[in-house]
Amino acid sequence: MTTKSVTKSLPKTLGSRRASLATPQAPKKAANFHSIFMKESESLMTINDNGQRRRISKLEAIAKQLHNKALTGNIQAMRIYVALYPQLREMAALQSKDLERTHASQFTDEELEKIIVDALKKRKEKGKSDTYRVPIEAAVAL
Fold it and tell me: Domain limits of the chain?
């Protein structure tokens, strides 16, 4: 006499169906490209730098790679590097110049006037009223 083993798949129990019905799933929020891109750029990765492991941001890794490829003779990397370098150098100089000057007496009159006019324009764009301040038109006329 031969016996056959019959295996049946067990039906889902009523309890598991109730559990899935009782916990509603929240709709997933659609992420925009900008936020995903910034999050990934700031995320860290591990590199070997002169035999030591270091964790740096992915943006820093891209800058290192561009620099290294330009040094090894990659023409595309050289073009990008040569185009970016003067702009970045100028931005760094402006930032360091502004960091050095902390008191109003260290700025020229024209620079102070430009700072004030820019600040007033930003306030007006934000919709804040300047009732106790000099109007933009009067500041420009000075």
Answer: 35-100, 104-142
